[in-house]
Task: structure prediction
Amino acid sequence: MNSTPESGLPRVTQQSNAFRPEATEAAEVPSQKERLSLHVLPPLPYELGALEPVISANTLSYHYGKHHRAYVDKLNELVQGTEFADLTLEALVLRTAGKPEHQQIFNNAAQAWNHTFYWHCLVPRSTEAIPATLARKINDSFGDVANFKREFAKAANEQFASGWAWLVSDGSGLHILKTGNGDDPLPKHLRPLLTIDVWEHAYYLDYQNRRPDYVQAVIERLLNWEFAAANLGT
Ligand code: FE2
Result:
C-alpha cells in the first residue's frame, strides 16, 4: 500500500480493485461533444428506477442527469486550456484542495468524483451479507454492524447543510467522516469505502425535509457492501 511520507496514511491510488472513476469513464462510448472534453459523465451502474422506492427515478434523473452532469460540464469549461487540462479527476482534486485560487475547479472536480463514487455505493436490493474482511474491520472499529449504522446515520444527519457522510479507512482502522459541500477524504489521504450524499438535491423530491428518513432507508436497503469491501484494497 502506498502511503504519504508526512502522515503514513494510505494514498488513494490506481489499485486494481479500488474505485477509479477514470476506469468507468473509459468504458463509455463518448459522444462527439464528449470526445472534445477531458472528463465525461460516466454511465449509471443501474437503471433510473432501480433504486425505487428508496430513491425515485425522478430524483435520480435530476440528480444524475442535471446535477452530476453540470459538475462535469463546468469542470471541462474551467480546465480547458489551463495547466489542469491533462489531469485526471483524482489528480485535480488533490492538486486544488485547500487552494482558494482554485476553489471553483476543486468544487466541480470533487463533486464529479464524489457523485460517481456515490452511485457505486448504492445497489438495488442490498443484502445484509457483508464480506468477511469488511465485517471484521467494522466490528473492530465500531463494535458491531448495528453500531456502525447508527454512527454513519448520525454523521449524515448532523452534517450541517450540504455535504457528505463517509466510511473511510486510514490503513489500520475504519472511521466515519462528514464533509461540507464538495469536500471529500482524498486530500486527507484517507481511503473512502462508502458515502451518502446529503445535499438536499439527493432526497428533497422524495423526502422533503426528512433527511433522517432518506439516510435510514439508504443505509438499510441500498448500501453496496461488495463495493465497500473492494475499496479496502486488500
Ligand atoms: Fe448530489
